[in-house]
Structure formats: structure tokens, C-alpha cells
Amino acid sequence: MNPTLQVIEDRRSVRAYSGQLITYEEKDLILQAAFRAPTAGNMMLYSIVEVEDQALKDRLAETCDHQPFIAKAPYLLLFLADYQRWFDFFIHSGVEQRARELSLPYRTPQAGDLLLACCDALIAAQTAVIAAESLGVGSCYIGDILEQYETHRELFNLPPYTLPITLVCFGHPAAPGPRANRTSRFAREFIVHKNTYRRFESEEMERMFTPVRERNFADGKFPMGAENVGQTYFFRKFVADFSLEMSRSVREMLKNWE
Predict the structure, then answer these.
(1) What is the per-residue burial (b if ≥16 Cβ within 10 Å, else e) of 209-241?
(2) What's the rounded Cα separation, in Å, for the pair 220 and 228?
(3) Among 20, 169, 224, 247, who pairs with 73 as Cys (CB 3.0-4.6 Å)?
(4) What is the CB-side half-sphere exposure of residue 4 using CA atoms within 13 A?
(5) pTM above 0.70?
(6) Residue 141's closest CA among 59, 78, 208?
(7) Side-chain-side CA neighbours of residue 26 (13 Å)
(8) Which residues lie closer than 8 Å to 58 by C-beta, 6 or more apart?
(9) Concatenated DSSP letters for 7-76?
């Protein structure tokens, strides 16, 4: 296995950090890697906020579903889907008036532009994560940044065409040596489709989740009154308070964007 693939194979989420600081050189290399990530039309439809103020970190530890380790992360990057930079440039360039003179359409950013910007931001984030891993710097994605949109918009002074897509904690792992056993993934047969999408039969779905059931519920006991794995995930994830808040928050994001 070549070194790049080994880095990807070894990468784990890290939520406990040593006292070792991340150097300026390491930060620079992580950011430079993010800048080299693939991007739609070379437009770089994202921005990155380095969150250095401890008060901001402390606040995020609460607003992102009460996760104290966020406040302790030595390096914190907020990745934004960002069409504001380009749209400001369009306005600066007089595109509205010129479009009318040429009988060409004029519009503001829409849902398609948002999804493209989200892709750019997430690709940049993952490239930064892999670069960090290659330097011995661990990382952890914080999807809960999608919650509490109004609060995060105010905290970071976000204009309409910018949205917080992911927050990433970086730090040297607290525990030296090999990390915990890697988390499992679905088998390839349930992820890779040939030429067209295929939905699974009941027997296949049971087989897909057999490893999850055997690993986490070997005693046959399920929490929250659930009777099987599917009910457990629905109750713990899909209709959990954080999930409902995330859906509400994203609706507000979309209304503000459009």
C-alpha cells in the first residue's frame, strides 16, 4: 500500500488532544492542501474561518450539540459554502446593467449554486483532513455546525450567500501509538452500484446490518423501546432533538439564501 493510501486507511476521528501545539508551518500546510482541492470551474466556492478566539470555541462547544472537546481543539476551521465573494464581484463588475444591455439573464444565487458551493467546501475540508493526518495531526468533523443557524450567522457575521457547512477540529492525538480499532463500513456490495441504482430486498437489508447488530447489540437488547437496529437508528438519530433542530436550521439557511 502506498503512503497516501496508508494515511487514508489509518485516519480516525480524534476527539482528545495532547498538549502539543500545532505549529504555524503545520497550519500553513493544511490550508495549502485545502486550496489545492478540486473545485468547480476553479471558482473556489468556499471560505475558511480560522477560529482562534477561545470565547468563540467555548460558544461552539455549546451550540454544536454540547461537545466540550471542541473548545479544547488546538486548531479549528469552519468551512463555508460561499457564493458571496463571487456575487459581490459580479455587482462590482456591473454585470446587472451589462446583462440587460445584452438581453442576457440576470439572477441571484439559487439552490444549484448552493449545492455546488457545498461540494467545493466539503472537498476542501476533506483534503485538509487528509493533509493533517499525513502530518500526524488528528481531526474530527462537527456536522452539528448545521444546527443553530441564526446563532452561527451572528457569531461569524455571515452574509446571505455564505453557509456553514462543516466545522473541523484539529489536534495531535492525546494517546500515542496505534489508535482505536477502525470503525466498520458497509460492505462494498451495498455501496457500489453498476450502471444504475438498485434498491435492496428485505433479506439484503438484514444482511447489510448484521455486522452492526452483532457488534453493538449482541445481547439482543435495544434502547429507547426499539425492537431492532432500524428502529434504534430512527429513534436515536433521525428523530433525535439534534436532527430535528438541524432540519429546522437548514430550512432557515435555504430561505436566507434564496
Answers:
(1) beeeeeeebeeeebeeebeebeebeeeeeeeee
(2) 8
(3) 169
(4) 1
(5) yes
(6) 78
(7) 18
(8) 71
(9) HHHH--B---B-SPPPPHHHHHHHHHHHHTS--GGG---EEEEE---HHHHHHHHHHTTS-THHHH-SEE
d(C-alpha 132, C-alpha 25), whole Å = 11
Residue 221 and residue 65: Cα distance in Å, rounded? 26
| DSSP code per residue over 218-245 | TTS--STT--SHHHHHIIIIITSHHHHH
For 54-100, the pLDDT digits (tens) are 999 999 999 999 999 999 999 999 999 999 999 999 999 999 999 99
Interval 128-170: pLDDT, tens? 999 999 999 999 999 999 999 999 999 999 999 999 999 999 9
Question: Is there a contact between 194 and 98 (Cβ–Cβ < 8 Å)?
Answer: no
CATH class of 3-181: alpha beta
* Residues near 110 by beta carbon (within 8 Å), at least 6 away in sequence: 258
In degrees and rounded to multiples of 5, residue 234 shows phi and psi of -65, -45
Helix (H, G, I), strand (E, B) or coil at 81: strand
List C-alpha distances in Å: 98 to 23, 87, 93, 102.
48, 15, 9, 6
Backbone φ and ψ of 12, nearest 5°: -135, 155
